[in-house]
Amino acid sequence: MKAQVLRKIARIEENPLELLNLPIPQPSYKQILIKVSTCGICHTELDEIEGRIQPKLPIILGHQVVGRVVKLGYNVSKFKLGDRVGVAWIYSACGECYQCKRGYENLCKYFQGTGCDANGGYAEYMVISEDFAYPIPEGFNDLEAAPLLCAGAIGYRALKLTEMKDGEIIAFYGYGASAHIVHQIVKYKFPNSKVYVFTKRKGDASSELAKKFGADWVGETGDTPPEKFHRAIDTTPVGIPVREALRNLEDGGRLVMNLIRKEEKIPELDYTLHLWGEKEIKTVKNITRRDVQEFLSLAAEIPIKPEVKEFKLEEANQALISLKQGKYKGAGVLKIE
Ligand SMILES: [Zn+2]
Ligand SMILES: [Zn+2]
Question: What DSSP element (H or E) covers 324?
Fold first, then answer.
């Protein structure tokens, strides 16, 4: 099978993903073999390639996978041949530890990330335990479904962690694959809430997308919005938005950091300006299967309409460079022929 393989940590500009021909993996106990149709592109891939997360090398990246079940391992009962399934960032968790038992399998000590600790979907085939695959709702085609599996699902977790209520104002720092999906959830669940969006630069592709999705106010990082906001989600790879979100946060408000491995440090915080007033910061780590399941049914109910930019598997390096440079709007997805 064709697969994009990362063999060593490098800057993405060096085109480190190599298109190789590998044997098709075989499903073992409780595993299914998936013929991959699409795989979403996530900022986490840049973190893995550039070494801000340490993947198990060599590795096939990709954790927003949509495809069909083409072979069953021993003792598979949840899926049959031909079923359309999705795979998310959670490849496995132990199910036994303190965190798993209390419903926080995302914090499991033995958590394995798809396309990080086990091969993912930048390939024609992949295997995973049937317990960590999900049926994809019918309303979405394969291209639309891919970004739901991380951008959407982890965005959903981030939104849950904000503990937002209807009528409160929420701000998004960064408006890419995740935020434009979370925005649609906010509009559906919190019809009386306002949404403020901060992008890198006025008039950039992300700010145009935010306007298209009906943001109540759009500015650039560093701007002061018309009112303080109660909740904020940061999906940027840089440090300044953290300080800025805290500055514009209402007392008692909460900032959820969805992209934690920053390419630069968070600037020094001023106690009075940024921290006082019972402001909270919460981070998002990984995802649970429950998040993915809840989000997929909510996405079908709304229904979410992701903005997708399609690339070929062969173009994976270029697609990731474009993501790093903020060159396309919405969610990048690899289409695997
Ligand atoms: Zn992701
Ligand atoms: Zn565990």
Answer: helix 316-324
Check whether residue 279 and residue 251 sit in a common domain. yes
Q: How far is the CA of 92 from the centre of ligand 2 (A)?
A: 9
User: Which domain, by its residues, includes 278?
Assistant: 153-283
Q: pTM of the entire structure? A: 0.96
Q: Is 172 exposed, middle or buried (0-12, 13-18, 19+ CB in 10 A)?
A: buried
CA of 274 to the centre of ligand 1 (A): 29
Residues 177 and 166 in one domain: yes
> Which run of H or of E encompasses 128?
strand 125-129
For the CA of 157, the nearest ligand: 1
Ligand nearest the Cα of residue 103 is 2
Query: Looking at residue 257, which CATH number applies to its domain?
Result: 3.40.50.720
Same domain for 174 and 295, yes or no, is no
Which bound ligand lies closest to the C-alpha atom of 154?
Answer: 1
Per the structure, the count of domains in the chain is 2
Q: What is the mean pLDDT of each run of 10 residues along the chain (337 residues)?
A: 98 98 98 98 96 96 98 98 98 98 98 98 98 97 98 97 98 96 98 98 94 97 98 96 98 94 91 95 97 98 97 98 93 95
